[in-house]
Structure formats: C-alpha cells, structure tokens
Write a structure and sequence with these properties.
Layout: H1 2-6, H2 10-24, H3 31-45, E1 57-58, E2 65-67, H4 78-85, E3 88-94, E4 111-113, E5 116-117, H5 118-133, E6 139-143, H6 148-155, E7 165-169, E8 173-174, E9 176-177, E10 195-196, H7 203-209, H8 212-218, E11 223-228, H9 238-247, E12 251-257, E13 267-271, E14 274-278, H10 288-292, E15 299-308, H11 309-317, E16 326-332, E17 335-341, E18 355-358, H12 370-377, E19 381-384, E20 387-390, E21 401-404, H13 411-416, E22 427-433, E23 436-438, E24 443-451, E25 458-460, E26 465-471
Parallel strand pairs: 2-18, 3-6, 3-11, 6-7, 12-18, 21-22, 22-24, 23-25, 24-26
Antiparallel strand pairs: 1-13, 4-5, 8-10, 9-17, 11-15, 12-15, 13-14, 16-17, 19-20
Helix pairs in contact: 2-3, 8-11
C-alpha cells in the first residue's frame, strides 16, 4: 500500500483515508475486495503515468509477435495431444449481461444458432475434445455479481456432460460518487447499481482469491486459455498451446490483422525491451490518427489470452499487476459516479517471455450486436460439432459490413423481422433503416441499402434477389 500512496498530495491522502474507513464499513464484500479496491483508487489518485513516450515505440519483430504459420505443427499421435491437453484449462469471461441486445440475464445464454447458446457451444466444443483424446479439460466461468445466480442455475443443465465446470466471481467494487468521493453504497443506495465489476483485468487476482488457481496447479494444470464468452472464434488451438509449452512463454496474446472496423482496438508494441499492449486511451492526442492507421499498427488484440498458471500465482502474490487504469464515468439516478477498471491484455508486460501470436481472423468472431447475429445465423457460416465455420463459397476474405437500425437492436425484434435469415454469401454491405420486414428466402448481393420511409412499413417479398440496389419502397423491386 505504501508505495501507491507515497505519491499522493496531502488532500488526496486524506480523501483516500476517508474512503478507506467508508469501505471498511461495507459488509457486502470481502476483505480481499476491499483492499483490491483501495489499492486501485490509490494508484488512480497518484496519477501513475498512463501515456507512453511515442518515440520509444517499436514495431514488434516476428520473434515477439509470432506469425501463426511459423508455429510448429502439433506433435503426432493422440497420446501426445492428450499430454498437451492435460495441461490446459479453459476460462470464459462471463460477467456481461445481454442488456444491450434486449435480453435479460447473462449474455452467454443468448441463442446463437440452431437453438444453441454461446455457453452450449463452448461446452460442446470442450466435450468433443475430451471425448476425442480421453482428457479432462475443465471449463471455468468467471461471473460477475450480475450473472452469478443465473449462471449457477444454467450450469446444472450440463451435469451429464463430460466437462467439469467451475464458476467463480470476479470482484465487486463500489461505484465512487464524483462529488464527494464516497462509495455509492454508503449513501443509502442498496441496489446492484451501487456496485460494478472492475473489468476483466481482475481475472488474475479473482482466480487466485477464489481458491481455483491453487486447486488447478495442484492438479498439474499449467496453462489457462482466457477468452470472451461471446467470441465464437475462440476455440482451443493446439498449435498455440504447443508453442507456449515448448518455448516456456508465460503469456501469449492472440492478435489479428486490423481492418477499418478495428481501428480502435489495442495493439502490441515493443517498448523498453518489453512487449506491451497499447490502447487508444494511452495515445497522446496528436498521435491518435497514426494509432488508427492500418499502415503503422497492423494488428489488434482479440482478447484471446494464454497464460501460465504458476506465473499468475507469482505476479498476483507479488502484487505486481499494476495494469493501466481505465476510468469509466457513469450516471446512476442522476448522480455522477466513477468506476475504475483494468483490462486483462494490459497484464502482458508483467510476464516473462511474453509473446503475441498473429492468428487468422477466423479466431475473432465476436457477437456484440444483432448485426453480428445476422452474420453467424446466415449461410455465410455453418455449425458443426459446436464449431462455427465460414463458408468456403465466399471469395472475399472480409465479412460483409452490416448496419441495422434501432428497430433491430433487440434480439426479439430482430428475429421477428426476418421470416428467414437472408443469403449473404455475395453481400458486401447492408444498411437497413426504418420499419423493414424481410420475407423468406431473400438473397442480398453487393451493396444494398434498404430505407423505409418514415411511418411506412416496408416488406421485402419472399425470394427477392436484391443486388447493388437502394430500396425505399415497393416500387424499387
């Protein structure tokens, strides 16, 4: 604690001391959570340098960010593969709610395709690995206090699968009232919205505090594969695991080439002899356009991370994870609050022999909105054995860009507006605005814009083929 508070002004030190006594009185959270929170706030107040010196940034070499094709092939024979998989644990970040897509409960229970949810697909994938190689790769779910109760019930569904599923909660921190720097729960707000989960950078201390890390190490597990539960491309990759084991890399971040859709994503750089994540928030204003350019920073972080368990134990034990703090201002019932968060990718610089792996785009298929759902439910993808695979019939390596209006934002509304999902194998871009309804068997090709006139319902007839067209009414078919 001393080191973090040493740089504080007398006013900030007093602020922190008052906050500490307020937090001590909150009986909803553990001692670990209280000290974790106070540490985070102390680091925030001391104004640790977030900016990087632009001139020191170097583009990482292929030794640091290894091209996927340069990874050694996986050893031959099922017994060798079983040996590898016996070292592995899969951890999915499961703290998010489906609210932005109009769903209640954890986002991971949204149906993706054929009536199967994100969580169903994850369990089926690990189940098929365990069946094929006779191994016991366990699944860990890191929940937040928002998703814990629902997830505990849902997990019972998989009692008969051959996947051992463990859940644990990430930390629960109080939101800070901006005006007087008091924790929101100590001002009479007893609801869930007085609290927040502090971002996925919390995965490492939470894994340790839950007791799960020690248990896994004692079972002989060596690596954890961490990924967002809504990334359908984040499947176990034996080549990456094999590379890390052979090269004794403690940490690996999967990156993939940037497209114009990813210009805000964090990138890997070499900085003062270490590999580290550079996020847009750390970039000085005068360099933001350079950061967004695809010429200089060609890759971005997929948030698929592979980390050595003993190394996690070491850095958490040394309290060494001082990852960049992301201040996230919010408003609760008209009160301005602040929540301080951290990201798991930023931890890369605290691990030894850390590397990036430059992986194919297929390993990054996140579903953040109904426009993504349209992609994965269409004929552009097929689902087999829990794996979502892109159709080889599409010649363009990039996916179509899809923009749907607010009428499609909620999953329920989205589904009701399509009699069936259109064929989009040859689509380049689609923009839909207004009260639009799609018939069955519609085919979309090239650049398509469909804009219903205000107050008018526009129905796309069954089996319509729309190629490179702007549609504003029935007369345009």
């Amino acid at each position: 604690m001393a080191s973090a508070t040493a740089a504080l002004s007398p006013a900030d030190a007093e602020k922190l001391s008052k906050l500490q006594s307020d937090v001590a009185a909150l009986d909803q959270i553990s001692e670990n959570e209280k000290s974790g929170f106070i540490n985070l706030v102390a680091r925030y107040l001391s104004g640790e340098a977030q900016y990087v010196e632009w001139s020191k940034i170097q583009t990482p070499t292929d030794e640091v960010v290894v091209p996927y094709d340069a990874l050694a092939p996986v050893p031959e024979g099922p017994s060798e593969i079983k040996k590898l998989l016996d070292k592995l644990v899969v951890l999915k970040l499961n703290g998010g709610l489906g609210t932005t897509m109009g769903c209640t409960g954890p986002k991971s229970v949204i149906e993706v395709r054929n009536g199967l949810t994100f969580l169903d697909l994850i369990v089926i994938q690990i189940e098929s690995l365990n069946n094929e190689y006779g191994c016991k790769v366990p699944l860990l779910l890191m929940n937040s206090f928002n998703t814990h109760d629902d997830t505990s019930k849902i997990v019972e569904r998989y009692a008969n699968s051959n996947v051992e599923i463990h859940t644990f909660n990430q930390s629960q921190y109080p939101r800070l009232v901006v005006e007087d720097f008091k924790p929101l729960p100590s001002k009479g707000n007893t609801g869930k919205d007085a609290w927040y989960p502090p971002g996925h950078g919390d995965v490492f201390p939470s894994l340790k505090n839950s007791g799960k890390l020690d248990a896994l190490i004692s079972q002989g597990k060596e690596y954890v594969f961490v990924a967002n539960s809504d990334n359908l491309g984040a499947i176990v990759d034996l080549r990456i695991l094999n590379h890390l084991v052979n090269n004794k890399n403690e940490y690996c971040m999967e990156v993939t080439p940037k497209t114009l859709a990813d210009v805000k994503g964090g990138t890997l750089i070499s900085y003062e002899g270490k590999v580290q994540l550079l996020e847009i928030a750390q970039v000085p204003d005068e360099h933001v356009s350079e950061f967004k350019s695809i010429q200089k920073f060609k890759i971005f972080n997929t948030n698929n991370l592979w980390v050595n368990l003993l190394a996690i134990d070491r850095v958490v034990g040394q309290n060494a994870l001082k990852t960049e703090i992301i201040p996230n201002p919010k408003e609760v019932d008209g009160i301005k609050v602040l929540q301080l968060e951290t990201a798991a990718g930023a931890a890369i610089k605290f691990f030894d022999h850390a590397v990036g792996a430059n992986v194919p785009r297929s390993r990054f298929l996140p579903v953040k909105a109904t426009s993504d759902l349209l992609l994965v439910q269409s004929d552009l993808y097929t689902l087999s054995g829990g794996f979502v695979t892109r159709s080889p019939s599409r010649t363009n390596p990039a996916n179509p860009s899809i923009e749907l209006g607010p009428e499609f934002k909620k999953v329920g509304n989205f589904l009701s507006r399509f009699k069936s999902i259109p064929s989009i194998i040859e689509l380049d871009s689609l923009k839909v605005t207004g009260d639009v309804w799609f018939g069955a068997g519609v085919v979309l090709k090239g650049k398509v814009t469909i804009a219903a006139k205000p107050g008018v319902k526009l129905e796309i007839p069954d089996n319509a083929v729309i190629a490179d067209k702007d549609i504003n009414g029935p007369e345009d078919f």
